[in-house]
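Work Package 3 (structural annotation) set out to generate three-dimensional models for the target panel prioritized at the project kickoff. During this period the team completed the workflow that converts sequence records into discrete structure tokens, so that structures can be stored uniformly alongside our sequence database. As a representative example, we reproduce one entry of 132 residues exactly as it appears in the project archive.
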Amino acid sequence: MIEIRCDEKWENLINKSELQKILTIFLKYLYAGERGISLYIANDAVIQKLNREFRGKDCPTDILSWAYDEDDPGMFEAQMSEAELENSESTGVAGELVLSGERVSQQATENGWDFETELFRLLAHGCAHLAG
């Protein structure tokens, strides 16, 4: 299961089917395709709050990752009701990635490429963290 969520601001900049394909490839090679992933594309304020809460750093960052054991429900899934979990097909989640769309946009400009290229680069980086 691959779950992709994003703030409304980033909806028109992402192609969810392309993200699904890229994440499927990463998961195939890292976990033989047996695990899923949760991706959330947020804004700087959300990622700064998470960075402060989980890493003690009060600043935005481009990507945060949380790797899970097979029995760990995950940060976002732990907040879901039992019925929501049953409907989400969320078994075997490798981990969760949260990206700042604002950082993706800024870094893409700095590096001279488009939003999607920077997004894919950061997803590879985040998936590598999940795999250890």
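The mean pLDDT is 85.
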